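Lab meeting minutes (informal)
Scribe: AK
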Amino acid sequence: MALLRLLALSLLFAVATPIRDITDACSSQVKDFQHLNSTGLHLTLHHPRSPCSPAPLPADVPFSAVITHDHARIASLAARLAKTPSSRPTTLRGSSSSPDDASLASVPLGPGSSVGVGNYVTRMGLGTPAKQYVMVVDTGSSLTWLQCSPCIVSCHRQSGPVFNPKSSSSYASVSCSAPQCSDLTTATLNPGACSTSNVCIYQASYGDSSFSVGYLSKDTVSFSSTSVPNFYYGCGQDNEGLFGQSAGLIGLARNKLSLLYQLAPSMGYSFSYCLPTSSSSSGYLSIGSYNPGQYSYTPMASSSLDDSLYFIKMTGITVAGKPLSVSVSAYSSLPTIIDSGTVITRLPTGVYSALSKAVAGAMKGTPRASAFSILDTCFQGQASRLRVPQVSMAFAGGAALKLAATNLLVDVDSATTCLAFAPARSAAIIGNTQQQTFSVVYDVKNSKIGFAAGGCS
């Protein structure tokens, strides 16, 4: 807990990344991705550590903090799958319609998914007239929210001004009797509360003890030239924890309050992205139609554990063309989630042990390094400069991720790189290190997920 508090303080008070000559490196925009279908909605996506990001993490945040944060996210997802409640309360004073109303609501916060350090960011427009806000993108969350003035309790430091509902002619609060207030239970795993002025209060809590509490609201959301009225989101009045310098979060999970589902009537039930590396200028997030021919697909797996998350079935891993020495059933011994906000992929213990052994064997001539936190297969050097074996992850239906060196290994400091995998306990998770530079499409309508190489180029 002390480490998390220190990290939170570093994120709140650290100065922005020093200005450097990165104009050329950061000039790539979503419109340059020629393979995208022009009828979709396309947004620029930035790595949290990229100097091109509109809200970069401080350069001095160590990778150990990323690991700590990632562990909290895993624990949070595990709690969700186990449906373990949390008794941690928070109190919100004030009213969205009148901050002087001094209404009071005390609400319990349940488990959610950890955000901030491992998540990618984009820009979202809100209000009339529209203003732009830097938002974390998360496939493991449903409700979209952002910080709102007057920040009755607390706002973390963000890039740019805080959204002011009074400056938007299309803003409206949502009453406690609205069906969307009842929908909060499935969207956030916390029931909606009610202020004394009959305004619905949401509570979104995350695995690292970060949370956002505020008023359920609706307004016009906009991206480039596309605007959608009556978009439901959280107007945060108490926002505490590790959200970097973002204004809030965009939820893309399978839930009627997520951005995906609210835009689907006009754009369709699908989205795709390419997660760039920290050294890349940008990737993209595309909502709506896509070019289906370029992908290899795996079916979305059904699960009664949490129907908002994206489950798939892993069927095998090969190292230098050879399958791991584990049974086929080992891959399905735990449910498998694909997640944009988890950094380190978690595998069933037997599968992880076999992968670690096989990679270490294939890199026998490379000097080893000491374990780094949960990463126990480490080498001296940087991933991009080492000779690594070809590793491929296979999924039901024939889809595969053929991993480059930077998808297989993660640099934890200037002299050490480690296998970007760890053993799982309650669920296997395909993290974002393995997804980087691939185009990944979530076709919710047809219940399938597709992969294509070279997505950010």
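Next up, CB showed the second protein from the same session:
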Amino acid sequence: MDACTAVGREIDKVLSKFTSYSEHASSTIGNLRSNIESLKMEIEQVGNGDITEAQAVILSQAVGRVKEAVTRLSTEHRDLHSSVSKVGKAIDKNFTADFGCISNDSVFSGEKQNLINEVICQHFFREGLLDIAEEHIKETGLSLQDESREPYFELNRILAALKDRNLTPALQWAEENRDKLIAQRSTLEFKLHRLAYINLLSQGPSRVPQAIEYARQNFTPFVFQHEKVIQSLMGCLLYVKGGLANSPYADLLSPHQWTEICDVFTRDACALLGLSVDSSLAVCVNAGCTALPILLNIKQVMQQRQVPNIWNTKEELPIEIDLGPSSRYHSIFACPILRQQSTESNPPMRLICGHVISRDALNKLTTSAKLKCPYCPVEQNPADAIQIFF
């Protein structure tokens, strides 16, 4: 991010110079043009084609001013080139052109290549690029069942309708999957009905009776869960005649309502269909972009200390890289005794006193079939420890 900021500052400088140069050049050329046109009119007024001595002097001065202005503008234009070249130098300074030093071609060989192609194909399906996805399947030789494609087709069809502000397909889908949505405590169906109700009110006072009838038919099942929201929706009826845009309920007409409903539908539909909310390809690319600067620094340090082969001996990274909260998909337990993360072979264990340590720490602390908690004086039988699942 610091590299992008540094390059951005150089680009801002160039754009600022371009703007000032353009304004100055336009002003200079405009003044010269007006002077020359006025001089031309004076010469034409002579009538016989001759000019006076005074006009000749003025004409000579005008030519000199034009040459001087052209020279000055050319010099300033050359200065712009130096500013543009600084942007290139800033890019070279802040970004690494060759990332081959941290790549491992064997990682994507064999069966893993098919997995990568499948992830790319799923990304195309998710984005609605069906033609590209089919061509990708044909060229890579992937064998995907129709059952794995259909969820993406339905998802894209409904999302396309929502982007066109058509709620009918989404409402139909929500009603068909009502029980499943209720089981996962989704508010999708209510938000769809709320948006349909607002659309009726936005069409003016003539649609108020229809909006009230729509509310009676569709808001009733949600009264206990969304009572205050429904009361607010009923209160906005008082402002329909004067226009909701000029009322305290103007936020109901915000385009953000449509953006939100698309996000809610994507999240709930993906959870219902067993799909991840974010594209797997996008997650991998974002994680790679975050980790890349750190990996480059570590690689440089390893080369300076003449330990270049350590990285290639294992399939894991030489250090832990924090990708941020958005990339944390499950809880991680680190043993407070051994200071190691738990694994399937070394899971977290809960002692009878309530403290949690890893199984390896439990085995090392056990003496004569007895265990004393490292945090409190409670003695216990190691067999009483219970494995914890996060």
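CB comment: The chain has a mean pLDDT of 80.
No objections, moving on.
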